[in-house]
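Entry 14. Structure prediction run on the chain below.
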Amino acid sequence: MQKEFDPMMWLYAQYNEPHRKYHTWEHIAHMLMRAGEIHQLTGDNVSVLTKPQFWAILYHDAAYEVHQPAGANERGSAHIACKHLSQPWVMAGHGLSFEDLKTIEQIILDTTAPHTATILASELVI
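Output returned:
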């Protein structure tokens, strides 16, 4: 029997790679914390992050190699996110749709400098 892929365990290993200085779990935690602060300021009863925004934050620096051409790491991260999250048991387990995957991909691509939101969902993340 094939063991199902766990995206969180994979991400944990990635963000703990020794060559990472800034793009670590602490960076991800800071982004999630900032989203929570924004949520408190707005006073909404709704979660501040959509599922695509949450997963885009988790995956936006999944690919990280120093001295890559502009956008290469972001394109790699978007590709990895779509590959990982499109697995049927991951999609079903986390309630993701194919539209969510497209949104996750675009949010991650929008994190490329100069960090321009091309879709509304990117605004909170970048």
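Helices lie at 7-15, 25-42, 51-59, 72-85, 88-94, 98-110, 122-125.
Filed with the rest of this week's runs.
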